[in-house]
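Support reply, case 0932

Customer input (verbatim):
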Amino acid sequence: MGTGTIATEHMVAAIRSAGHHPLWVVSRNRHYATDFSQDMQIPGIAVDARRSLRDPRIGFAYVSAVRDRRKHYILAAAAEHKHVLCDGPIAGTSRMAATLVEACKAAGIILALNQPFRTMAPHRTMRRLAQDGEIGTVQSLLIARGAPYQPPPNRHLDERADRSDALFELAVDSVDLARFVTGQEPATVTALSAAPPGTEADQSSYAIGMSGGAIFQCYESFTTAEFESIVMLAGDRGTLIAHGTLSGKGSGTLVRRLNGRNELIPVRDRDPHVTTIEAFLALPQTPATWMSLGDDNVIALRTAEAVSAAQKKRPVAVGGQ
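Our regenerated output:
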């Protein structure tokens, strides 16, 4: 449902590689649906989501619409009792996301997210090693990424991403990744905004106290030249460092530092979109503990909203001598 670029470039092929066949393209714009259907060789076209969802051949819905349209498709799928895989975030606010999650629970369906950062092998290996005690007790997590702003590619000029939401959505993804690799929940938030009052922020820095005592620090910027992203999970016995995993240009690398020495950790590199589809399809029988579900997205959105609120608070100036 929807004709977004992620669907075009990755997910249709991933669905087919998992042995399933996309049957319907749903879009509020029939012209968009027709073009997408022809490009992706999908037979059915619909403007009304209910028409496609009532097809008895349909087993699940994949939602790749722009953010503000995702709620309509999720609710339509819930009404027809079809499981949903959706690009994140599922809504623009935590309140709306919670409403969607409750609707899916009431319908008895699964609402899962296509969350590539969770799917990437270095992050999943980092989580497993931390859970196994390889770095001792987790003390802190650092996430840093920066590059000039580039809107994500889109098939349609009238569905361009809103730059004002870009940092917010980065925070949603980073918070979700922090919960995933630490196994802890956000508890308290402090933040710094580098933007003067009344101007648009192009970088942000925030810190979150986690439920298990770890400190999560994050820096996200559109003002710097591109640098290799870093996800560093530090424990009292060692550190795990993922390089280049957040750029969307490859799976990156994972290094473990113990006793003053670095060790490159081998990871099994698989297509994250195929991995997501396979895990989603298996969810009713074999829960994938690494997948992001609707409740996870509600928490990430709520925390990102807390970051935005903290950034609006007046900082304490440093007095002169």
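We compared this against your earlier run and they match. Two observations from our side: The chain has ten helices and 13 strands. The mean pLDDT is 90. Please reopen the case if you see a mismatch on your end.
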